[in-house]
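Backbone-to-sequence.
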C-alpha cells in the first residue's frame, strides 16, 4: 500500500480521536443584558448543538438589563438541546435583575462563593415611567414569568416570585439552601468535576454528563457582538451623539471640509442605533439640541454671555435626562457628562472670544485700514485748501481743520473717497522739512 494511504488513515484516526473527546463550551457575559448579549448566547447554544457539546457553561456577572433581551435568552435556554449551566462567577459577581431569570432557566444553576442573586423587580428594566396600574401589570407579568421558569426547572418558585415582587436577594449558600441553585463551585475545574455523572433532562431524553475529562473550549463574542455591546453602553451612545452633532456643525460652518461631515454623519447613525436600544427621554434630547442652538446664536448675537450660560444649563440638564432609567448602569455617568459639558463650554467660549477679538481688531484692509496711520505733509494744508500727503509711498489729497506745514507728520482720522482728513501728530522738524522739500 502507498505511503499516501497510510498518511490518510493516520489523519482520519487522529481527527476521530480529537472529535471523539467530549467538549464543554464556556461563554462569558459581563455587564448589562442587551440585544448583543442575546445574540451572543444564541450563537453559543447554536455552536454547542452543532458540535454536539457535552455541556455549555455560561459564566455570568450582570446587574440586570433589558427585559426583551432577557426573554429571548430564557427562551433559547429552555429550548436548548444541549445541557446548559449558568455559573455566577467569579467571587464578587452577581446575577441581579435579568440575571435571575437567566440563572433559573439553565439546566444547572451554579454560584461561586462570595456571589449573590436576586432583586429582580422589573421596574426600570426597560426604563419606562408608568402609572401604578401599568406597574402592577408589568410586575405581575414578570412574577409569572419567573415562577414558570422555576417550575419548569424544578426550582423554588416562591423564591423566584419574591425576587420579583419583593426584590429579595440571597447569597450562594442561602440560594442553595432555598433550592434556587443546584451547586456551589469555587472554580471551573471543580464545577466540571461536580457536574460529572449528573443526569440532565433534554427534549431528546435524559443525558448523563461526562465532564470530568472533557476538553474545555472558550467561545468569546465575535467582533460584531462586541461592537453591538459597546454601542449599547449609554456613555458610548452619548459620546457618539455629541461627536455627530459637532461634526455636522463644523461641516456646515466650513463647507468642503468633508472629514468633519463624514465622521459626524457616521457617529450620528451609530448613536441613533445605540439609542434605540436604550430608554431615551426625548425631552433630554431636545434640551441638548436647544443648547447647541444657543451656543451658535451666541456667535451671532451680543448677549454678553447670557446665551452661553443658558446653553450650559440646557446641555447639562439634557445630558442628565437623556437616558431615563432609575438603574445606575443604564444611565450616563458623571465622568462622561462633566468633561463633555466642560469641553463644549471651553470650545464655544474660545470661539466667542475669537469672534469678539475680530470685531474689536482695527481693520487692516480697505479704506478703514488707513485710519490711524501716519503720513508726511508734502504741500501746505489749510482749512480752505487741500494739500498732498505721502502715505506708504503714495500721494493722497488731504484736508485739515488747521494749517499744517510741509514735513509735518500727521495722523489720518477720516477718509472720504480719495481725500484724507488729517491732524498733526508731531511738531515739524528741520530734518522733516528738508526731506519734504527735497
Amino acid at each position: 500500500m502507498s505511503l499516501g494511504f497510510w498518511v490518510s488513515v493516520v489523519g482520519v484516526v487522529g481527527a476521530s480521536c480529537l472529535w471523539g473527546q467530549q467538549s464543554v463550551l464556556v461563554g462569558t457575559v459581563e455587564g448589562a443584558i442587551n440585544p448583543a448579549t442575546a445574540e451572543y448566547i444564541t450563537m453559543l447554544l447554536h455552536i454547542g448543538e452543532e458540535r454536539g457539546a457535552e455541556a455549555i457553561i455560561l459564566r455570568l456577572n450582570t446587574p440586570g438589563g433589558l427585559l426583551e433581551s432577557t426573554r429571548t435568552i430564557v427562551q433559547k435556554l429552555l429550548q436548548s438541546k444541549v445541557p446548559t449551566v449558568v455559573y455566577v462567577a467569579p467571587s464578587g459577581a452577581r446575577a441581579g435583575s435579568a440575571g435571575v431569570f437567566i440563572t433559573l432557566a439553565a439546566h444547572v444553576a451554579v454560584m461561586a462563593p462570595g456571589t449573590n442573586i436576586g432583586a429582580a423587580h422589573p421596574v426600570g428594566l426597560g426604563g419606562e415611567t408608568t402609572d401604578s396600574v401599568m406597574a402592577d401589570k408589568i410586575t405581575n407579568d414578570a412574577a409569572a414569568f419567573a415562577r414558570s421558569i422555576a417550575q419548569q426547572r424544578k426550582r423554588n418558585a416562591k423564591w423566584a416570585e419574591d425576587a420579583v415582587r419583593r426584590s429579595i436577594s440571597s447569597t450562594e449558600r442561602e440560594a442553595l439552601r432555598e433550592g434556587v441553585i443546584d451547586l456551589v463551585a469555587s472554580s471551573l475545574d471543580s464545577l466540571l468535576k461536580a457536574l460529572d455523572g449528573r443526569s440532565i433532562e433534554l427534549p431528546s431524553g435524559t443525558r448523563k454528563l461526562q465532564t470530568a475529562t472533557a476538553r474545555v473550549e472558550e467561545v468569546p463574542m465575535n467582533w460584531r457582538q462586541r461592537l453591538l455591546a459597546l454601542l449599547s453602553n449609554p456613555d458610548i451612545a452619548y459620546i457618539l451623539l455629541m461627536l455627530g452633532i459637532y461634526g455636522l456643525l463644523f461641516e456646515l460652518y466650513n463647507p468642503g471640509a468633508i472629514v468633519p461631515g463624514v465622521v459626524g454623519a457616521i457617529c450620528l447613525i451609530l448613536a441613533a442605533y445605540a439609542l434605540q436600544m436604550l430608554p431615551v427621554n426625548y425631552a433630554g434630547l431636545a434640551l441638548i439640541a436647544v443648547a447647541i442652538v444657543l451656543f451658535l446664536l451666541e456667535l451671532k448675537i451680543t448677549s454678553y454671555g447670557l446665551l452661553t450660560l443658558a446653553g450650559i444649563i440646557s446641555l447639562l440638564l439634557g445630558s442628565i435626562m437623556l437616558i431615563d432609567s432609575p438603574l445606575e448602569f443604564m444611565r450616563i455617568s458623571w465622568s462622561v457628562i462633566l468633561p463633555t459639558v466642560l469641553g463644549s463650554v471651553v470650545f464655544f467660549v474660545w470661539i466667542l472670544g475669537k469672534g469678539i477679538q475680530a470685531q474689536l481688531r482695527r481693520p487692516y484692509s480697505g479704506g478703514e485700514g488707513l485710519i490711524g496711520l501716519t503720513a508726511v505733509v508734502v504741500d501746505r494744508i489749510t482749512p480752505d485748501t487741500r494739500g498732498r500727503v505721502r502715505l506708504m509711498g503714495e500721494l493722497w489729497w488731504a484736508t485739515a481743520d488747521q494749517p499744517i506745514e510741509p514735513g509735518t507728520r500727521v495722523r489720518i482720522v477720516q477718509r472720504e473717497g480719495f481725500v484724507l482728513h488729517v491732524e498733526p501728530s508731531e511738531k515739524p522738524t528741520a530734518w522733516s522739512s528738508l526731506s519734504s522739500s527735497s
